[in-house]
Write a structure and sequence with these properties.
Blueprint: H1 3-29, H2 40-57, H3 63-89, H4 97-120, H5 124-132, H6 134-139, H7 141-149, H8 162-170, H9 173-187, H10 189-194, H11 204-212, H12 222-239, H13 242-270, H14 275-287, H15 289-296, H16 300-320, H17 322-326, H18 329-344, H19 349-363, H20 368-393, H21 405-417, H22 424-431, H23 436-439, H24 448-451, H25 456-461, H26 464-476, H27 478-487, H28 490-493, E1 501-502, E2 505-506, H29 529-541, H30 556-572, H31 582-593, H32 604-608, H33 610-631
Antiparallel strand pairs: 1-2
Helix pairs in contact: 1-2, 1-4, 2-4, 3-4, 3-30, 4-30, 9-13, 9-14, 11-12, 12-13, 13-14, 13-16, 14-15, 14-33, 16-18, 18-19, 18-20, 19-20, 19-31, 21-26, 21-27, 22-26, 30-33
């Protein structure tokens, strides 16, 4: 064995040892310091980690791969250590957190580096060849677009499986789209029967009551509220009951989601994605319990997510063939319509689009005038929608408290945990904006109790006094402010057990029809009680946690890590234009971090768009492999 091999193996052994120590540090956070270190599991983990490290170090590790691997490794190690500590101690300042982070970072760096090299390990020489051929690829863009749009040469054989082979060659574009539509719609029929007439939880009662009381506000998207109200009125006109209206709404939402998700599946097939991906996307969107439940849940997040997914597909198409997009008036109109529905079904859809604008202008700088015009048109539609349309319907603006969750939660945390450390002036400044009763109901992971006692209208009129107090308190309680922010968001970025325990069980998804008041309530009358109980346990008891590996597909942090890893891969592969696809995810994620609570439905766009993220990773790998074969 050469000295180089000895050095590589020594590094692998050290990284594996540190990783096991890091996991043990995490156990110490919850007071079980010897639970791992004295176990056979520790030896097995050490052996597996050593093997992974040794395999990675067999090949040369250049500086660029090391930098990207270390950046991702340190980020994921920090998320793991912080999230674990917050989950058990509600703070990141536990003395074991930094040792855990330091010990886990080398192995996480190896894992991220290995992933980058496998998926996008293009050498510097190959990268330069790729750059040189970029112009030729762009010239042939229109021809390739026509080819993929026509679904020619899908590279399928009977060896890929009779079902996939049959689908690939039996359905042209239009028929394949309707095939996907039918599969998706029919896959949700059992869920409709199990939850008959649908899942009317979360904010449905509030939305319907607001319209009934002529107190309609922009707190919830008015288009979604109108859909709930109109279908309810139609049902009452036909049968005189709320149940019929709920059933009509459920069918309408199923149709909308089937139509939009079918476009996602169609896109993957048009781009010649491997059969496991486009067939898997159809199965995932149709049959995974999260998608099944959201398809029948009458919350704004369901339709918004499907619109979001189609928006991502539009960006992919734009990035691949910009000349075709900007030469087509129909495609540009569809873009504007897509953006309109993006903010019409969720208030933070506007902020998501605003975040995307600079990236759109940069990515399509060759067509910056047309791109800028499209952005102006989209913002103009928003202005008309929230201006004259709102005024005509008598829509009142939403309460400013919705934007202040981070502010009020951090102030409430300090008020409860270090009351004596506040000056009298600071106490009065906090109490002037938040009632003491609300401050006493503080919960670190849930802002709604405090939010209910926040004087939103007064803050909107004159925010300066409270902001001054908030800054003043923060200057002397920096750690508490950081803890407050992370405690309210770690469920999004920590792939562990961050599901809130409530009196009703584990709150993953509200599988019920909430009782609000008689004139708007819907009663769940299951036609398949056994299946209904299955979904109830998933939503209200998080029963999926009993199934290893499968449980990860329900975890919000898993999808966040996939998104971040996808960004790293695109950066490492120098896929600059494809990075535009990550902009809406980033903008939406940042708005979620300012929200009052971590909920699966808020993070649902990341879940439903998993097939698209996997497609991006596959595409980078395919291009790397193709380039390697060309160079050879």
């Amino acid at each position: 064995m050469s000295k180089k091999q000895i050095t590589q193996n020594s590094i692998a052994v050290l990284a594996a040892f540190l990783a096991v120590c890091g996991i043990n540090f995490l156990y110490q956070i919850r007071g079980t310091s010897t639970m791992l270190s004295n176990s056979v599991t520790a030896m097995l983990m050490f052996g597996a980690f050593t093997y992974v490290g040794a395999q990675f170090l067999k090949k040369a590790v250049n500086a660029r791969l090391l930098v990207y691997g270390a950046a991702g490794g340190m980020m994921f190690a920090a998320f793991a250590a912080w999230g674990f500590s917050l989950n058990y101690t509600d703070t990141i300042w536990n003395p074991q957190v930094f040792p855990a982070f330091a010990a886990l970072s080398p192995f996480f760096t190896i894992c991220v580096g290995a992933g980058l090299r496998v998926l996008a390990g293009v050498s510097e020489k190959k990268a330069s060849v790729k750059t040189g051929t970029e112009g030729i690829q762009q010239k042939n863009g229109a021809m390739e677009a026509e080819e993929t749009d026509g679904l020619t040469g899908v590279h399928m054989s009977e060896a890929d499986g009779p079902i996939a082979y049959f689908i690939a060659y039996s359905f042209p574009v239009r028929e394949f789209y309707w095939f996907c539509f039918a599969v998706l719609f029919l896959s949700w029929i059992p869920v409709l029967l199990a939850s008959w007439p649908g899942i009317f939880s979360y904010d449905c009662g509030w939305q319907l009551a607001a319209v009934a009381d002529h107190a309609w506000t922009a707190h919830h998207p008015i288009l979604h509220t109108a859909m709930l109200w109109l279908t309810r009125q139609l049902g009452r006109a036909l049968t005189g009951s709320n149940q019929a209206g709920a059933f009509i709404y459920s069918l309408l939402q199923m149709v909308i989601l089937s139509a939009l998700y079918a476009d996602v599946c169609l896109y993957l097939r048009q781009k010649k994605a491997p059969k496991w991906l486009w067939v898997g996307a159809l199965v995932f969107l149709g049959f995974h319990p999260v998608n099944s439940l959201m398809a029948l849940c009458a919350t704004k997040d369901s339709i918004f997510t499907a619109v979001f997914a189609v928006f991502v597909v539009q960006l992919l198409r734009m990035a691949e063939y910009p000349e075709i997009f900007f030469a087509s008036g129909r495609r540009q109109i569809l873009f504007c319509v897509n953006v309109f529905f993006l903010y019409a079904f969720r208030n933070n859809g506007l902020h998501t689009f605003l975040f995307c604008i600079p990236f759109l202008l940069w990515a399509f700088r060759r067509y910056w005038k047309k791109m800028l015009l499209l952005c102006v048109i989209c913002l103009g539609l928003y202005g008309i929608y929230t201006g004259p349309v709102y005024s005509a319907l008598g829509i009142q603006p939403g309460d400013a408290r919705e934007m202040c969750s981070v502010l009020m939660q951090s102030a409430a945390r300090v008020y409860n945990l270090d009351y004596q450390g506040l000056t009298q002036e600071q106490k009065e400044g906090i109490l002037a904006m938040i009632d003491e009763e609300g401050l006493n109901t503080y919960m670190s992971r849930f802002a709604d109790p405090v939010k209910a006692y926040f004087h939103g209208s007064e803050f909107a009129e004159n925010p300066t006094p409270f902001l001054k107090t908030w800054v003043s308190v923060g200057m002397t309680h920096k750690k508490m402010y950081i803890d407050s922010f992370l405690a309210g968001t770690f469920g999004y970025w920590y792939p562990g057990n961050a599901i809130e325990e409530t009196d009703k069980g584990k709150d993953y998804f509200e599988y019920d029809c909430k009782e609000f008041r008689a004139d708007v309530d819907v009663t769940m009358e299951s036609k398949i009680p056994v299946l209904s109980e299955f979904y109830r346990k998933i939503g209200n008891e998080a029963s999926f946690q009993k199934a290893p590996v499968i449980a990860a597909t329900f975890n919000l942090g898993f999808y966040t890590w996939l998104w971040l890893f996808t960004i790293l891969v695109l950066l490492y592969a120098r896929q600059w234009k494809q990075l535009i696809v990550m902009a809406p995810f980033t903008g939406y994620f940042l708005t979620n971090l300012l929200g009052p609570v971590v909920k699966m439905r808020y993070h649902y766009p990341f879940i439903a768009c998993m097939p698209l993220m996997l497609y991006l990773l596959w595409r980078v790998y395919k291009e790397k492999k193709s380039q390697a074969e060309t160079d050879f």
